[in-house]
Each structure stands twice: as structure tokens, then as C-alpha cells.
């Protein structure tokens, strides 16, 4: 690591605040997503403190929506944990890709910053790091902005979501679906990835039709992941 | 099985929080000891996209035409202009408009 690289990890009040402000526009959409979550969670019968606690402590929207899909009088905890792990497994790779910059921070800061990592602030700070710009403030301050707006949105969904008479007629049931689709299609695409997606989709649908309820996410994710490990892409895109 | 009332909900939130924390910390922790092999990286990378596809496939097949139109609109928009926020907004709008008629 050269000196210029070593400075990229700098984390101080100024760059945290700058990162916070930079992520506020995106956070407004995060709040709408949070509103949809808060509303959906009240509709499956979660009590209000639990909904806020879930958004504050789990802070991973797609897995929170998936938990609602599994909701009933009882929940099988192992399939729930596996579903949450599979949906959030991308954080493992995000953490690994940030390691070259995070390794300069003491462990407390290193793991503290990771508490606030989401797709949006990770993607933006990786772009900045790759341009040799300091982005630790963007990662941490931006993550705090997203976290606060996620909780705010959830709260709005709980208390004002019911003012929306028919969320389905306004398309609000599609917020998560459209968000996830935008995330997946916004990433890298090539023939190998598309075939992996087709295999994942087919495996997921077969599990959805023929296997126990809610196994389709884990089955589809594993099918795609295993194919990706067996049929590896070119090392240049890794 | 855990009841989804009272204390049970706390356990569910706690389990979800811990599993998510493992994913947020795990990659950094592992990297501090062993570099993630290229094969593992490919597995995680393929799985992270596949999990979203696995969530979406039944939604697209079992949903109504409004749901399908929303996903199609989002897909076309993101492929054309590569900006997620307008793509999401247009997808929701498409579902809303379709369901008004």
C-alpha cells in the first residue's frame, strides 16, 4: 500500500457528515421502501415495537420482507435463519471487497462501519475507492443516513400507512419486487450470469410448486450459487 | 417452531439480526485470515444474484398482470437508462395505472 492508498481510509467528522448528506436523496426512496415494509408488517399482524425493532436491528429490507412472507401463527426458525442468510449473503462479498481499505482501521471502527453497509452506500463507496478517492465517510455516514430513513419510513408505514385504503391498487405491493429486480439487473450481466439466473429461477419455481412452503428462496439461491462455483467466470471480472 | 406473539417475536428479530450481522461481519473477518478463494467468491457472487431471482420468479408467475407489468417496466427501464430509482418508480406507477382500469 502506498501512502496515497493508506489515506483513503480516513474517517473523521467532516467526511462522515459529507457522506451522510451525499446519500440523503437515495435515502428518500429507502424511506418509501420502509413505509411499504411498515405497512406490510402491520398487515401480517406484527406489533408496532417489534416492527421498529426489526428495521433498526436487522436493517436489511429484502430479508425483512421475506420474513413477512414466512409469517404465520408460528415460524420455523431454521428455514427463517437460512432464508435471511441467503438473502443477505451478498454482504459477505461486500465486506470482503471492502477489506483492502477497512484493514487500515482498528477492529472496533472496522466492524462498526460494517454495521451500516447496504447495497447503495457500498456501491457508491467502492466506485469512489476505485477512483482512488477517500470514501470511508461515504460508506459510514451514508450508511447512517440510510439507516435513519429506513427506520423513519418504517414508522411512517406503521402510523400513516393505514391512511392508504388500498395499497395494492397504488402498486405499493410491488415496491420490493421492483427494487430487487432493479438491483439484480443493475449488476454485471453476461451469458454465464444469465444462465445462472435461469437455473435459479427454474429451481425456485420447481421448489415453489413441489417442495415445502418457503423453501424456494434457499433452493433457488443454492442452485445458482453451486452452478456459479462449478462453472467459474473469467478471473478478469472477479 | 416459534410462536409469532409476545416473546417469540423478540426471538425472531434477534435471530434475524444476528444472522444479518454474521453476513455483514463475516466477509471482513474471513478476509483478515484467509483470502476468499476465487471459487468461493464465484459461489457468493452467483448466489447473491440468484437469491433475488429466486424471490422474484414466483412473484412474476403467481402475481396478477399488474405485478407482471410492474416488473417488466422496471426491467426495461433499468436496462435502458441504468438508473434504479426511476426504474422502481415507473414499475410501481405501471402497476398502479394498470389496476385503475
UniProtKB/TrEMBL annotation, chain A:
Q: Please state where this protein is localized.
A: Cell membrane
Q: Which organism is it from?
A: Amphritea japonica ATCC BAA-1530
A Gene Ontology annotation in the biological process aspect, one of them, is:
L-valine transmembrane transport
Which interval of the chain is the signal sequence?
none
Residue ranges of coiled coil: none
For this entry, the protein name equals: Branched-chain amino acid transporter subunit
Report the InterPro entries cross-referenced here.
Answer: Brnchd-chn_aa_trnsp_permease
Question: According to the lineage, what is the superkingdom?
Answer: Bacteria
Its transmembrane ranges are 23-44, 75-99, 136-161, 167-186, 193-211, 217-233
UniProtKB keywords: Cell membrane, Membrane, Transmembrane, Transmembrane helix, Transport
Pfam family of the protein (one)? AzlC
Q: How does it sit in the membrane?
A: Multi-pass membrane protein
**GO cellular component, as recorded:** plasma membrane
UniProt lists the family membership as follows: Belongs to the AzlC family.
Where is this protein chiefly located?
Answer: membrane
From TrEMBL, chain B:
Source domain of life is Bacteria
- The reply on keyword Transmembrane is yes
TM helices/strands, residue ranges: 6-31, 43-63, 69-98
A Pfam family recorded for this sequence: AzlD
Q: Which InterPro entries match?
A: Brnchd-chn_aa_trnsp_AzlD (IPR008407)
Keywords on record: Membrane, Transmembrane, Transmembrane helix
Descriptive protein name: Branched-chain amino acid transporter subunit
Q: What is the lineage of its organism?
A: Bacteria, Pseudomonadati, Pseudomonadota, Gammaproteobacteria, Oceanospirillales
